Structures are given as C-alpha cells and as structure tokens.
Amino acid sequence: MFKGCPFGLKHIASRYQRVINSILADVPYALAFVDDIIIFSKSYEEHITHVQNVIKKLTNVNLILNVDKCQFAQTSVYLLGFCVDAKGSRLDPRKVTNALSWEKPSTGKDIQRFLGLVNYFRKYLPNLSEVTAPLDKLRFEGKLTSKIWDQEQDDAFTKIKQLLASAPVLYHPDLNEPFYVATDASNYSIGAVLYQIIDKQIRHLGFMARALSTSEKNYSTTKRELLAIVFALKKFHPFLWGNPFTLYTDHKALTYIHTQPVANSMMIQWLDTILDYDFKIIHRPGIQNVLPDMLSRLFESERTLVGDKNQHKTWITPHIANSKNTNMTNRMMMPDDLVTPAPEERQELLLKIHLEGHRGSQAMVTTLHSEGIHWTNLKQDALDCINSCPDCQKFNVAKHGYHPLSSIYADAPWDHICIDTAGPMTTSIQGNNYILVVVDVFTRFCVLKAMPDKSSHTIALALRNILSLFGRPKIIQSDNGTEYVNDIIRKYTEISGIDHRLITAYHPRSNGIAERWVGKTKNIIYKRLQGKNDDWDLYLDSTQEALNNTPTALHDTRPFSLMFARRPNQFKDYSDVSIPTNYNETRKQFNGHITKFNNTVLPAIREKIKTSQTAAENKFNKSHRIIKEIPSGSQVMIKNINRTAKTDPLYIGNYTIVRKNQGGSYILVDGTGALLPRNIPPSHIKVISEEQSEVYDVEAVIDHKGTPGNWLYLVRWKGYDAKDDTWEPEKHFHDNRPILKYWNRRNGQHNVEPNSSEKRPRKTHDNSSRKRARN
C-alpha cells in the first residue's frame, strides 16, 4: 500500500480532486483545486472558525498541511492566474507580463500558443474574438512570411497586448442592484458585457465573445445581432435568469424573429431561450459605450490616412521648412507634403511607431515628419504616449525629486540621539568586529563602543551601558536593521519610556547624522592603524575624544563643551591647581554656572543651530530638484531596490499614494489594496499619473564628480536649458551610451572609464573655492 500518491499514474490528479471534494463537500466556505484550498469568510472572526473547521476535517483523514506554503487571513489571493479580493477579481499581473513580453509569432504554432494564453483571460477582454480574428485565420499556417503576416496582423497583435494591459476589474455582483446587458455583433464575431450601475459608476461583471462560424458569417446583420442576444443570455444565465434586467441592443434584432414567414427549428430554440427571461429593451448599438475609457479607445472605428477622399487635410504653416533646428529630411519637404491626421487617429499612429522599439519622443517626431505627418503639439503628444507605456516607465531615466530639506532638531543635549553600526571591521585581537556609534543631535557628542557582533542582545547591552552613564534620551533614532528592530530593543525602549523612531527603509539619508559619524570614525581609525588592522579597537577611545573635541560647523563649538557645560581638560600638569575649601561657595558658583548655561548659552546655541540648518536647507533646495507634495491617489512606480542586472527594470509598480507621513516619506498600496510593508522616500518615487508624469531624454553627459566606481554625472536633458541639468548616478542610466560618449570625449579613447588605478580626470570647473564641511 502506498502511503502517498506515487508518480506516473495518470488518474491520480482527478482521483485526488474527487477525494478532496468529498472531504469538503459539506463546507460551503471552502473550495479546492487539486492540492490548493481556498477558504473565504465575511469577517476575521468568522475566518478563524472556518480555518479551524477545515484543518480539523483534513486532520481527521490524515492529510498534512505544508505550513510554509500556507497563507492565512489574506485580503486578496492570487489564484489560477487571477487576483481575487472583496472588491472583485483582476488579472494576475505576473501572468499578464508573460503575455506582454511575447515575441511576434513566427509560425502558426506560435499563434496557437499565444491565443491559448490570451483565451484563458477572455472573460476580462471585451470583443476579444473580433480582435483576434486576423491571427486566428493564420493558426494552421507553417512559417509566417511577410506576405502572410502583414500590417493587419501586427495591429491585432499589438491591440491584444493593449487589451491585456488595460483589462478592468470584474466586480462581484450585488444581487440587490439591477443588471444590465449590452450586446454587439460584427462581420467576424459577437460579444456581450454584463454590468451594474452603482453610485453612478459602471461595474463590469464579465465580458463574453466568440468568433462566428463560416455559416454564421453569412447571416444578415439583424440575425447576427439576434445571435449575440441569445449568446449573452446563455453565458450570463446564472445572473439573469429569474432577475429583471435591461438589455441594450438593436430593436430590429428581436423584431426579426417575428417577421419570418416560417420559423425553423433554430429560430424556435432562440425564441424559447429569449422567453425564459424578463427584460426591457433599450436601443443602443454597440457595447463601446459601457467599456472603460482605456478599453473603449482600443475599439475605435478603423480609418486610414491614405486614399480617404472624404478626409479633410489641414496643412501646416511654412515656418517648419525654414526652421534652423529642422533636420535635412524636414527641410526638403514642402508644406503641401505634410498632412495633419484627424485627432482620433493620432494616438494610434504614435503608439504604432513607439512600440516598434520603444522609441523616444524625438525619434517618434522625426519618424512622423519623414512620413509627411505633423500636427500641433506633436512633441507633447509623443511624450504622453511614452508616459502611458508601462515598459518605458520601468526603464526610462527620470529626474529624481526631493521634498524641501527638513533638518532634525533637538531642544537640549541628549534629548535626541541617533545610533548606527559600523562594520564589519577586521576581527581584532580582542575579538571585536563592529562599532556602535551613538551621536547626540543637539551637541553632536558621540559615543563609540566596540562589539564582537551586532546581535540584538549585544546591541542592547552596549546601549544600556552607554545610557547608564549619560542618562536616557527622549528619542532614539535608528535604521531598520534587525539589530535595532527586535523584541529586546522594543521592550527596553518601552520600559525606559524612550520613543524609538525608525528611518525610511533603504533611505540612509534619513539617518544622515549617524551615517556621517560612522564615516568620520572609520576615516580616523584607518589613518591611525598603519597596517595593524587587528588593533583598530585600541584606537576607539582616542577617536571618540578627537571627535568630541573638534568644533562642528553646526554650532562652531566643541561637542564636549556643550554636553558637559565646561571646557575639556588639556594634556598638562594640574598639580598646582588649588582645591576649593568653601564647598558652600563652590555649590553656589556651580549652580550659577548651570543657570547661566541654561539661560544664556543654550538659547544662543539654539539660534546658531537654527541659522546653520536654515543655510543648509537653502543650499540643498537650490542644488536639488524640489517637488511639491504628491497628492493622495496618484499612481506611481518605485525604485527597484533589488535590481541586480541592467535588464531588470529601474522601477516597479504600479502603486497608489495613500498619504505622506510626518517624516516626508509616503505610504503606498499595491494593485490589490494591500499596504506596502515599508514607507517610500520621494527620491525613490516616479509619478506616472497623467497630470504629473514626465519622461526625459538624455541629450548628453556634461560633467562628472565623485570617486571611481561612484561617479555622479551632470546630465543635460533634451529640450531643457543648462539650469535644469541634474546630477545622476550611473545606476539611473538604463542605456550607458551617453556615459561612454562622455568618457570618449574626455579621454580620446573608446569605452574607457577611469578606474582606481588611473589618475582621476581633471574637472572642467574650479573646485578650489570649495570647503569641506566639518559636520
């Protein structure tokens, strides 16, 4: 006897399905597809009960669940190529991506495979049979030559991909609201859509379509419309039978059946089907009026720019031919050679040219001009077309935006501290590998602690040791590393009454103070080691002393002096200093000193800090592209932090802005409505909504700065002045040809970029006036 299902038996899958169906036969809230079980509930409490019941039934028959593959209390699930939630269902974007990246078919078998994938999603794709008709007729061809595969097939292939990318959400039906059905018929196919109107919003429940058979193509137009009605009633029978509904179609379709002198058996069957339903008829030919806007544009009536005698031609003015910036092709064209197409044709023209190779806006404009086509605002329309392309949104270089700099402010010493970990370092003789760096925001006083590891237990002990000496702060700020985000640190801060604030994930600039002191600490230690790398922790105390006795640019004062309200003792002999004998007088002097420090020194330091931070903010805002707050509901993509290869997209999405938090980062939700597990800084966000989206083309790289391997490039953007140039890192370039051209100009060689062994190229501007910031 087998203890489990053996491999190789063909009937195992169906047998297992029958077994699992019998186990769950009396459980109406659970469904199974082979070994996948989905449990659905109206509330969380009900869901717990349902899950317990299902697990109990499985346990009773010795079926074991794989806990690692189980997901509980999900608001949405991916199931058999679809994403299902309380709102409705939509296509699984992972499956859609496979279809969008499908190469153009080269054989009839390729067409069959592509249509097989697309047909699986046909419920979400209106009029699919009509769109696939040009491909369907080539299913049984061998090799697809240019004589067989022409522009008609190219257009159909592109339109199918657009349909997949624009597939709407199909809502769950509300049985308390009326249903509506719209039908349509063409020379090649019939289609129908079922929907409801709730709160003046059309909610689609399903799309159905099929191709006409050879004999059905010979039907009259009215008979095809009647066939579409019968087809819709059968397909949407579970929703429509027994419920009054409204049918939008051509009146003549139903009168046709009563005008036949002799009704054949097919007509009688159609009549029997129609009489089973209770509906009222409203005349409205076509189903385009109830499609989503994005889909309805894909089904506009086809026209042509060539040979249409009824099309009115609008000629452009002669100034293009005389423009100095016009290329040779355009200068050779006379105005009478350029035609302006009708507005409804322009989007299709642009999309066709763009999808040939995801061309940039200038290339699209040049291509249209070379074909004798132009219209007002052509460049802007090309930019809008690129902006609507999801693949281009993922890969195009974008200008990064920043919110105005907002400095961290503390009111008194040790009120607010920042912590970070430096390392791993070379293992020291004492067995240390890491440095805990603690910096006071107000004074910039730092404490450095060597540690053998960065486990939560070690961090907590080191932090407790430091706070026992200097007291507990009101706020501790750290990154999202596991050494800081754990139960031990959480308990310690809660018991101590400390507000533990976490910075935005993958955005170290948010913890810039600690990051800078980590860099300063390592820089000083490395300079002192002189090759004895395993002695680095012996220099930690002197490094801490050096940092705390160095005035910072923030307040031009030693951190030690502000921290302890006195000057540090110098390396000299204090044996001749007299010891005070009148302790009462000394106490009065000390209290007076503290009072003066609190009433005079601290207010002056606060004013100095405020002035310094204001100057830094102004400098930052002048040198960075400052953006306005992104409105809630905006569609955005976010930087792909897991990008490992140049073929990976720079951005992933789409996501929706929920709101901005107090730290300036944004809370986002994905397409299923689930909150992202981390907040996103504005520099990682790329807005793609129509109102705010812009795509920029790189004209040239002008300059560079930084160090080998970490160069920043000054980018000149096409169509923008020099004042709009921005510094961009190499990782923001999907196409590195502008960078190679830049180094080619500088070095006089091909594809040569300086490395650490080469002399750093001389900058094109003078940096002698720049001063190194001391903080």
Brief sketch in words of this structure:
The chain is α+β, with helices and mostly antiparallel strands and 775 residues long.
Report on this structure.
It comes from Rhizopus delemar (strain RA 99-880 / ATCC MYA-4621 / FGSC 9543 / NRRL 43880) (Mucormycosis agent). Residues 409-567 form the Integrase catalytic domain. Pfam families: Chromo, Integrase_H2C2, RT_RNaseH_2, rve, RVT_1. Keywords: Multifunctional enzyme. One of its GO terms (biological process) is DNA integration. This protein is an alpha+beta fold and 775 residues long. It has seven domains: 11-73, Reverse transcriptase/Diguanylate cyclase domain (Alpha-Beta Plaits, 2-Layer Sandwich), CATH 3.30.70; 89-166, Reverse transcriptase/Diguanylate cyclase domain (Alpha-Beta Plaits, 2-Layer Sandwich); 173-297, Ribonuclease H-like superfamily/Ribonuclease H (Nucleotidyltransferase, domain 5, 2-Layer Sandwich); 343-395, no CATH class; 416-572 and 584-588, Nucleotidyltransferase, domain 5, CATH 3.30.420.10; 634-689, SH3 type barrels; 698-744, OB fold (Dihydrolipoamide Acetyltransferase, E2P). It contains 24 helices and 23 strands. The strands form six sheets. A five-stranded mixed sheet has the order 9-8-7-10-11. Strand 3 (76-79) and strand 4 (82-85) form a beta hairpin. Helix 14 (343-355) crosses helix 16 (378-387). The N and C termini lie far apart (75 Å). Mean pLDDT is 74; it is low at 291-337, 689-695 and 749-775.
